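task queued by scheduler; priority normal; single chain, no ligands, no partner chains; default sampling; output format set to structure tokens
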Amino acid sequence: GVSYKEYSMSFSDKLNAAQKELSDSKIWKSNSHPPLFVLLRKLGVNIRPMHYNTFVVNFLLMALMFGGLWGMIMWFTTWEPQNMPIPIAIISSLAGGIVFGLSMAFYYKLSSKKNNLSNWAQL
């Protein structure tokens, strides 16, 4: 069952426990504390470290962020000047986001297992 400790730990308590576990591991700080997520936390967004998200959450976060940002950069720098049709640009952005999202979700899942990190609920 679920212990009282799991109910009583605040997000910041779990985040501190996760950050300690990450710093004790062999994971590079740039991988465990990406600048975007440090910024989001400073802005008050309660977002878990990537190593403690589910595969699906990491896939969706990475796919949407990368696909959207990369697609906009490509549109304004390359695709629009080359008169690429908008549907092709959207499909290309989606495909890039899916590939990147899957790659990153697999990376974080494998890195979590390799470094014997706790599950977020177990912190």
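post-processing summary
- The mean pLDDT is 91.
- The radius of gyration is 18 Å.
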